[in-house]
Every structure is written in structure tokens, then in C-alpha cells.
Amino acid sequence: MKVIFLTGSHTRHSYIAWRLHKANLLSGLLVEEREEFVPSPHAGLKEVDHHNFVRHFKDRSESEERFLSTPESDSIRGIPVLRVTMEELNSDKVKEWIQKQNPDVVLSYGVHKINKNILDILPKYAWNIHGGLSPWYRGNITMFWPFYFLQPNFAGMTVHHLTAQLDGGPIVHHSVPELVRGDGIHDVASRAVIQVAEDLIQILILLQDGKEINGQPQKNSGKLFTGVDWKPQHLRLVYNHFDNDIVDRFLDGEFGVQEPPLIKAF
């Protein structure tokens, strides 16, 4: 079974590629060069928002380095690798590269939207890994919003069919990490990446063994968050009001419990 992975260049993306390769489940890798991982604060922010912005993205970088960095000695070798820019993602070059690999499974995570000219050549099993639990948290920054709405147990990942509708394809699998006391917002997000990598390995092995894996249509459209929904001022709730201890307060029962009805492939 040939699996190719279309992914970004950040640590979280490289971790899943590394994990699939280590499990002998990766036959080709396309890497889209992404933007700088630690952005600069916007001009004109109040001191509190400037401080929170710097803290938030610094903590994110440190958490992903701690949880998701992979050893240099274990770098991916022996498979075709294509590196592209955002502008090249939907190009004929990429289309021809995918066709040349002749994959049985295509996975995507951390790349920009894939256009119809690429979608049309993908195999039956073409899945996106979405950082967020669909349909409740779709779109952008979807690992932040569960914390803002005091639902850290809704912080997870969705494997769904790749379609033209953003994060709207039939759901194959929901993956959620264990909530560990003492974890902050970025630790939960990092654990979610680790968990979805392990879940994907199990799903791909089932496919390899001949099991049919079908998705379930998303019946509820949920909320599609866009980049403009998020403002640095939203960080005040996480850091100034709760001091990034939302997980502990949730585990203590402070917010009540509403469990998401999860879809599982195994």
C-alpha cells in the first residue's frame, strides 16, 4: 500500500511525517513551505495584549519543541520528497508528482486549500487531518477556541475525506488526547498531534489488512472559524483570567462536562 503525505514545514507537520515513516507507512512526502512559526505582535497593542501575544506564541514554540521535535539522526530518507511553495501547491508540477507516485492513500495536514484539479486525481482514500474537532470547531485556529469556550475536552483532531468544502468532508475518525493535569493550551495541542499520529497508524494498518474504512457525513455544520475571528485580546481570558490552568479547572469539574459524540474508525 502506497501512502503519500502532503504537509507543511512546521514541527507538528514534520512529527506526523516522521511517525508514519518510522512505522513504514510513508511512500512519498510533499512539504509546503509555511510562514514563520512565531509571528510578531501587532503594532498598537495595549501592554497586556502585547505581553500575552508574545507569551502565547513563545509557549507554543517551546511546547511543540518539547513534545514533537524528532531526532536529526532519524530524518526521513529513502522516499521521494517534493518541496513546494504555497503558490506551487496546486500546480501541474504537483499534479504530475502525485500521479507518478500512484498512491493508494493520500493524507494532507498543514497545507493550504487543495483545488479541484488536484482533488480530481486523488484515490478513494484521500483524507485531511484537521487540527480541531469537526463539526464543532472547523476552519482556523481551532485548537484555541475550545479553551476560550472552556471546553478543553473538545481540543482534538479530525481525519476526514478531502473535499472542496473546507473541513466539511465525511468524518473517518476523531482523535482526542488525554487531558493531563498541569498542561496548558499548547501542551494539549501537542498531545493531540501525537495521538492522531498513533491513530492514523492503526487506521492505515487496518486498510493494509483489507478493512474498508468509510466516513460519516457531517450532519451539523457547526462553526467555521476564520482568521479574522481571533484577536490578541481573546488571550486575556486564557492568561489573565485563568493563568492557563483551564485543564486543571476542567478536571476539577468547574466548567461541567459535555462530552463530544466522537466518530471512531477502530
From TrEMBL:
Organism: Paenibacillus plantarum
SUPFAM superfamilies, alphabetized: Formyltransferase
Protein name: Methionyl-tRNA formyltransferase
Top-level taxon in the UniProt lineage: Bacteria
Residue ranges occupied by any Formyl transferase N-terminal domain in the UniProt entry: 83-192
InterPro entries, alphabetized: Formyl_transf_N, Formyl_transf_N_sf
